[in-house]
Amino acid sequence: PPAHSRSDWIGPPDKHSNLRPVIFYVPPEESALERRLREARQEAQASNQRFWARHNRAFRQEKEEFIYSRLKAKGLEMRDESGQKATLNAEEMADFYKDFLSKNFKKHLQYNRDWYKRNFRITFLMGQVALVRALRWLRRRKKNVEQ
Amino acid sequence: MSAARRCRPPRALAGLFVWRLRNTSVRQMPCQFVPLYHVANDRLITFQYFNFLKRMYVTQCNKDLSQRAKPKSDSAVSPFHELQQLDQEKKVVHKISPVSPVHQSWSETSSRNELREKKSAAETEDSVIPVGAESKEDRQWKEMKLRLDDLPGILARLSKIKLTALVVSTASAGFAMAPVPFELTRFLLASLGTGLASCAANSINQFFEVPFDSNMNRTKNRPLVRGQLSPLLAVCFAACCGIPGIALLTLGVNPLTGALGAFNIFLYTCCYTPLKRMSIANTWVGAVVGAVPPIMGWTAATGSLDAGALLLGGILYSWQFPHFNALSWGLREDYSRGGYCMMSVTHPGLCRRVALRHCLALIGLSTVAPVLDITTWTFPIISLPINLYISYLGFRFYRDADRSSSRKLFFCSLWHLPMLLLVMFTCKKSVLEKEDKGDLPGGSHERAMEIRLP
Predict the structure, then answer these.
(1) Is residue A13 assigned to a domain?
(2) Is the distance from CB of B332 to CB of B401 less than 8 angstroms?
(3) Separation between Cα atoms, residue B429 and residue B434, nearest integer Å
(4) Does domain B306-430 have CATH number 1.20.120?
(5) Class of domain B147-304 as given by CATH
(6) Of A44, B26, B298, B372, which is least surrounded by CB within 10 A?
(7) Distance CA B448, CA B375 (A)
(8) Which GO terms describe its cellular component (chain A) (predicted)?
């Protein structure tokens, strides 16, 4: 984003985590409250990115391993004669999906709790910042009117 | 049309314009409200403005183009690497100018494009966003600034407007089926209140699910995921819809309907949404959420919870299962990766059994309707063909358990419900007849019409 921009910028989804990164604008006269909000958002973004990148990578890897082991059991190679990547049909993959979900269940529960807490906190801080800004704007308006 | 011709210029040109924009010392990126006096370089003002327009045209046209060809996957470096190299603006620029379409999985989206009107429990609304729009806009860095003219579209997507419309229509079906004279103002108030409550519930649902939505193909274009809206605004919108909606229902219609509306919002946002990630019981809770609107419609008309209301709710409740189970059958990979506990992933056999069971239950419930004096006996007879058909598809799904049978069942459920409700409405037993305790299969329809006129 341009160096002179005064707002946050959001980018295309990350290849690993599918989350969109945000570059936060740091205003020169940032208040303590606004700084807390920005840091909370940055922290949440980093944590989400870590979790999903790792999770998705693990999914892809385990999926590959599963396909490989199943194909081997069937006596097939990873690629058939035409060079196309061999895949299993949906029913065979279903076993893998079920397995993967149950394996990661606890991880997801923990992440959910984390995410909900962060989300509420960030939104609450946003509300506070918005309120403070609105009051400041009103006060300035009153001053202008008086002048 | 010149606008159409402007679509044709290679996308690289558009990227070039963007590059030019970046290199001028402009205060803010394409924003119509940019005060032009901020622009440092005077001679570039007009060029700047035209660039913006051109860019707008290109992106607008892309929105209308429906690109069916499978785009090649992007080989760009992960954006997170960019964060560390912010000072090197060139790097960011290079990422944008060779705009290549975003890789997308078409397995789900191609089928969804057919479902313009119908809506299924929040699953398909995102398909209508033409895929072409993503290929260009998705690959760019966007300013997180709310634009007022985009706001209606964003809010429509946030509130899942198509699903809301379906919910309101089931509520009006409930209202229409109630055995009382029809009151227009009451009907409109009830519909409006239900619609607002549904908007609020959907917004909160999206607010809760941002990181999960971004990881699933079906939902990755939602406004909060794309940063078009801040979470605070989403919550405020939900409050601005929910509170007036419930107030309207409680004060304008009756307290019972208001209470049901509030209960449904609570059930959807605080029970169903978290439960989706904890246990398969979420499907049953979700079915109740779907069953409440017709009950609300009925209580809005009569003011009390009768057996008829519960029957209508029961029909909607049973309908949810073949509908949702068939849909979720094709989304197993996304659900598994996203951490959603759905029957189709963890208990596939149960998934299909339940779908079939409830298809058959629909036949049973349709038969009960005349017993409760809601409709005449023509209703179970006329509705038998469509109920049998969906049960047949449910049986095929149960036996074959493959993608084609699940899709057939899903699409059938989409037209089955409106058809069933329509047949029910035409077979409605008129109020007069109920007093006579008579049963006139042929004449009931006309009598019902007479009663309904004020």
Answers:
(1) yes
(2) no
(3) 7
(4) yes
(5) mainly alpha
(6) B372
(7) 11
(8) mitochondrial inner membrane
Q: Helices B255-266 and B282-302, interaxial angle, to 10°?
A: 170
Q: Which two tokens stand for residue B45?
A: 């003002």
Q: Kindly state whether B400 is in contact with chain A, defined as any CB-CB distance less than 8 angstroms.
A: no
Residue A81 belongs to some domain of the structure: yes
d(CA B315, CA B91): 58
Residue in A closest to B99 by C-alpha: A12
User: What whole-number distance in Å separates Cα of residue B160 and Cα of residue B167?
Assistant: 11
Contact A90 B402 (CB under 8 A): yes
pTM, two decimals, is: 0.72
Residue A4 lies in a domain: no
Q: Position B174: which residue type?
A: G
Between CA A42 and CA A24 the distance in angstroms is 8
Q: Which domain holds residue A55?
A: 9-146
CA distances B130 to B9, B134, B225, Å, are 20, 8, 17
Angle (nearest 5°) at CA B42 between B36 and B48:
65
Among residues B354, B289, B299, the alpha carbon closest in space to that of B323 is found at B354
CB contact under 8 A, B232 and A126: yes
Q: What is the pLDDT of residues B372-406, one digit of tens each?
A: 878 888 999 999 999 999 999 999 999 988 889 99
Question: Which residues are A10's β-sheet partners?
Answer: A22, B142
Question: Which amino acid would we find at residue B292?
Answer: V
The span from the CA of A6 to the CA of B294, in Å, is: 48
pLDDT digits (tens, 9 = 90+) for A82-134: 656 667 777 788 888 888 988 899 999 999 999 999 999 999 999 999 999 99
Please report, for chain B, the start and end positions of each structural domain, with discontinuous segments joined by +.
147-304, 306-430
Q: How many domains does chain A contain in total?
A: 1
- H/E run at residue A23: strand A22-23
Sign of CA dihedral A61, A62, A67, A69: positive
* Residue at A85 is within a domain: yes
Q: Which residues of B touch A18 (CB under 8 A)?
A: 214-215, 220
